[in-house]
What we know:
The chain is an all-alpha fold. It contains six helices and no strands. 34% of the residues are buried. Residues 195-204 have low confidence and may be disordered.
Amino acid sequence: MFDEMYMAMAYSQVILGPVITAIVLVPILIYIVARWRSHKEDTSPDAQIGIKVAMCWFKVAAFQLLLMAGLLLSYATITDLPSNLGEQLIRVALGIALPSSIILGVMFVVLRTTNTEQRPAVHRMFAGVSLIQTGLVAFSALLYGGIALFQKNVPTEINRLIFCAVAVYGIAALMQGRSFLGLATGRGGLPLATASIGPADGEQ
């Protein structure tokens, strides 16, 4: 049992990696790129870039935490761990999901009050980042699943955790990819966690 828990904790590092990346690097890089594009392409630079970067960051972080809560919740429903541990996982998942849902909803509403519809460059970049984060975890889960498939005596709990990760993050990545493709090709769609539909920066 301790080996299974240890392996589960090791796998969780893969889940936390994209969140840490978003916390440290993404907002800074996107702000720099968006500010550079605004000064280069627009006759009137976008004065709301900073606030949009901040709100989009919180939106993406909340969405990724919701996916993590979904992973914990789905795993808790099929695990054979002692009932008190399963109940604890459910409580943790709900504890993550509630504030994340609130933040996601608030950011979605507040972003509608900005010039996102007219200048969606920041949202589009964060939408791409969110898709990469989700896809990275889904791909990692598939990789772990492929390795586990050809190993002997793989703990059952690890197989269950991998299955939940593939299901939760795989479905989310497919939905995000479909929505993001619709936005990029001009066919509509609202990418999960970020982008709004609108003309490109500088278009009327």
